[in-house]
């Protein structure tokens, strides 16, 4: 029988497909011919089939090394649905009891099991190695192979031991599969697995159906996410967050706004995680709010949007997570919220790790920043990162291409960059090159005496953002390259040298500005829609707040902050209960200051015959969450704040965020016991007096006014005391 016909027939028999996709057939032939095989295929491209079909056709059991228990369960369930015998696929991991393990081993010995899924940790166990030596292995499949590389977004140290264990069991062909790998990561995977001569099958990373957008992350992010999901009601979606706590918070916000949502993170027990995952797959809920642990290998074809609440740690992680949208080729919206503050927080989390790991992490974050801030085609930037040249200038399916910015000529700037990189023999990173051109006498510039160069300070009239835009576009055009293995040193390419010999036009698009992450979402004058803030009412409430401020001798922000006024001017609360649903307004503050505001709003609504959008209100989670109650009770017991943070698994700054939310919403607390323990009395009085006289409670303003004599945490603590004393 013709081999091609044979494989197609088996594909139809076992999986119900008439034809192979992309490189599937070639990869399957390679592993069946006994060759080491490397498969780089985007999410939804059908990677799993590349080892599932040959496993069914070859003698022995294929050993599939997979990183997550949830992923193994999903794959095993899928294989059992395709075949008559349940024993055709098993997993072997810590979730099984002795009886279940015996069943698995008996099925393997009898030849029933064609695929055995194991985690790398289970593979390393002596008893498992001893057992696997006794059975016939057809080949090894290393799924999610990017976990091998320190440069990959899901690095797992145990993955680097796989080759050693394979050598102990039996030498058979290896197929490594991943949806995301830069050239550097691909090389690392092949080298570590001892398969540098492998047959490589690399599909395009372009997912034309996916729409990419970056939005600024501001105080209204929760409201924006709720409105987006409501506008896409009935569609399945994933919201990714970096922390377990944020996953729980966002899930609650979605639930109180009548959106069917469930959380998924490593802090939940395995039974709950599995149940929540199944509820999403079975369409019992529309939205899963998750950490990055969710979705790896989950075969749900109709996810219509993926929202990143936090900027991911790497572009590889971002690409894989967005790849879970539109796997059926249909609509897939990929929205990421970005602020510079999030990047700084991620950098801070790397402190204490080995220097080399910090350097890798910083480079990955820098690539993520470049993607977020760039005004170039998102698809072009993303594919370039993976070593793929996207020829089109406008993809027509990203925010930058649908709303293109004006291009400006930057030939002279490019020449300056290329000449400087060449002059320094390709031995420095982008920030050093920019520092020289801008005339910044940093320690590194002075150490190398680069302030003596003729080119020093020649580009001081251009800002850093413009220089970065030039460098990023020069890399995409092939004039510059970044040496990843040497911590991101810039190198001029042969094309770059040719350009210097014969310069031509070079237009850039200036990067986007994400500096104003704390800005309030701008809202136009209210028309008939009921969604935008009523600016007349907003102005009237500001006047009322000013009068109350004078009458009560407290700063205006102590009464209600401006985002709260904006929300009132949008949803028109006319009862104390409705007022408590306004962000930043708790029961205490509503009762203390709410009566006059409610009367003003009620009059305005009646006089102007306004139809209130109460049923369209974005509801917030009640302030009395378990965490907040625990914090208040701990403070009442005079537990040191740093001990509370430790007990709740929070950074100290995150605890301060929670306490600020508590006092700003109207709950009175007393942290004098902690303040008096860490600060001198006159220092407390000095900062307290500042807030009494100040017209704003903005932290940055306070730090400047107080001439940076005190730490940010000290100022925040005294501000908490002041708000609690004066407002509550």
Notable traits:
728 residues; alpha/beta; Rossmann fold; Arc Repressor Mutant, subunit A; 5 domains; 7-stranded parallel sheet
Oligomeric state of this protein = single chain
Q: Strand sequence of the main sheet, in spatial order?
A: 3-4-2-5-6-1-7
Q: Architecture of the largest domain, CATH level 2?
A: 3-Layer(aba) Sandwich
Q: Which bin fits the share of residues in helices?
A: 40-55%
Summarize the structure in short.
With 728 residues, the chain is of the alpha/beta class. Helix 13 (315-322) links the parallel strand 12 (303-308) and strand 13 (332-338).
Task: Chart the SSEs and their pairings.
Elements: H1 3-15, H2 24-32, E1 37-40, H3 49-57, E2 61-65, H4 69-82, E3 89-92, H5 98-109, E4 115-118, H6 120-123, H7 126-132, E5 137-142, H8 162-169, E6 174-178, H9 183-192, E7 199-202, E8 210-216, H10 221-231, E9 236-240, H11 244-256, E10 261-264, H12 270-281, E11 287-290, E12 303-308, H13 315-322, E13 332-338, H14 340-349, H15 355-373, H16 378-385, H17 399-402, E14 407-409, H18 411-423, H19 430-438, H20 443-447, H21 464-476, E15 480-483, E16 489-492, H22 494-501, E17 507-509, H23 535-552, H24 556-559, H25 562-571, H26 576-579, H27 587-607, H28 626-636, H29 641-648, H30 652-664, H31 672-678, H32 681-693, H33 699-705, H34 712-727
Parallel strand pairs: 1-6, 1-7, 2-4, 2-5, 3-4, 5-6, 8-13, 9-11, 9-12, 10-11, 12-13
Antiparallel strand pairs: 14-17, 15-16
């Amino acid at each position: 029988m013709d081999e091609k016909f044979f494989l197609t027939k088996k594909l139809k028999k076992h999986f119900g497909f008439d034809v192979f996709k992309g490189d599937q057939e070639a990869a399957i032939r390679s592993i069946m011919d006994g060759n080491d095989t490397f498969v780089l295929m985007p999410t939804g491209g059908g990677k799993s089939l590349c080892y599932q079909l040959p496993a069914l056709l070859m003698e022995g059991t294929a050993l599939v090394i997979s990183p997550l228990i949830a992923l193994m369960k999903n794959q095993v369930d899928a294989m059992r649905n395709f075949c008559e015998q349940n024993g055709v696929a098993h997993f072997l991991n810590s979730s099984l009891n002795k009886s279940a393990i015996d069943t698995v081993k008996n099925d393997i010995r009898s030849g029933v099991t064609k695929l055995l899924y194991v985690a790398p940790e289970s593979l390393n166990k002596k008893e498992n190695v001893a057992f696997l030596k006794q059975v016939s292995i057809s080949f090894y499949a290393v799924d999610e192979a990017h976990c091998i590389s320190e440069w990959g977004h899901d690095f797992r140290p145990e993955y680097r031991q796989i080759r050693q264990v394979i050598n102990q069991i039996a030498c058979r062909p290896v197929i490594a599969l991943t949806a995301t790998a830069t050239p550097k990561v691909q090389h690392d995977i092949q080298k570590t697995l001892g398969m540098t001569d492998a047959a490589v099958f690399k599909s395009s990373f372009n997912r034309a159906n996916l729409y990419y957008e970056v939005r600024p992350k501001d105080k209204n992010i929760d409201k924006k996410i709720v409105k987006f999901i409501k506008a896409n009601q009935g569609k399945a979606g994933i919201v990714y967050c970096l922390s377990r706590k944020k996953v729980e918070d966002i899930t609650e916000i979605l639930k109180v706004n009548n959106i069917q949502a469930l959380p998924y993170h490593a802090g939940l027990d395995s039974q709950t995680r599995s149940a929540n995952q199944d509820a999403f797959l079975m369409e019992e809920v529309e939205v899963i709010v998750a950490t990055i642990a969710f979705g790896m290998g989950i075969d749900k074809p109709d996810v219509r949007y993926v929202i990143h609440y936090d900027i991911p740690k790497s572009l590889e992680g971002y690409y894989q997570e967005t790849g879970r949208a539109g796997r059926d080729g249909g609509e897939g919206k990929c929205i990421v919220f970005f602020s510079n503050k999030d990047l700084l927080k991620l950098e801070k989390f790397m402190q204490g790790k080995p220097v080399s790991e910090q350097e890798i992490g910083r480079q990955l974050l820098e690539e993520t920043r470049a993607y977020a801030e760039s005004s170039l085609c998102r698809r072009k930037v993303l594919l370039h990162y993976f070593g793929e040249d996207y020829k089109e200038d406008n993809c027509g399916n990203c925010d930058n291409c649908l709303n293109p910015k004006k291009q400006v000529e930057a030939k002279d700037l490019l020449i300056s960059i290329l000449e400087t990189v060449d002059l320094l023999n390709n031995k420095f990173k982008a920030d050093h090159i920019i520092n020289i051109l801008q005339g910044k006498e940093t320690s590194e510039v002075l150490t190398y005496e680069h302030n003596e160069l003729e080119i020093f300070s020649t580009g001081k009239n251009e800002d850093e953002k413009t220089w970065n835009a030039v460098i990023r576009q020069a890399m995409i055009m092939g004039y510059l390259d970044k040496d990843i293995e040497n911590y991101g040193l810039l190198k001029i390419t042969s094309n770059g040298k040719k350009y210097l010999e014969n310069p031509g036009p070079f237009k850039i698009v200036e990067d986007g500005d994400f500096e104003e992450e704390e800005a309030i979402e701008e809202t136009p004058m209210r028309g008939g829609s009921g969604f935008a803030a009523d600016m007349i009412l907003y102005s009237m409430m500001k006047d009322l707040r000013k009068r109350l401020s004078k009458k009560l001798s407290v700063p205006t922000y102590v009464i209600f902050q401006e985002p709260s006024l904006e929300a009132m001017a949008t949803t028109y609360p006319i009862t104390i209960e409705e007022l408590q649903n306004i962000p930043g307004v708790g029961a205490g503050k509503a009762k203390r200051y709410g009566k006059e505001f409610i009367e003003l709003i009620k009059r305005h609504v009646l006089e102007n015959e306004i139809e209130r959008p109460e049923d369209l209100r974005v509801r917030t989670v009640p302030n009395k969450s378990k965490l907040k109650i625990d914090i208040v009770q701990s403070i009442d017991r005079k537990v040191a704040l740093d001990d509370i943070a430790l007990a709740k698994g929070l950074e100290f700054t995150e605890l301060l965020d929670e306490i600020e939310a508590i006092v700003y919403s109207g709950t009175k607390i007393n942290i004098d016991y902690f303040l008096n323990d860490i600060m001198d009395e006159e220092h407390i009085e000095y900062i307290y007096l500042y807030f009494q006289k100040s017209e704003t409670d903005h932290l940055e303003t306070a730090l400047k006014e107080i001439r940076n004599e005190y730490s940010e945490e000290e100022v925040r603590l005294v501000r908490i005391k002041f708000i609690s004393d004066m407002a509550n």
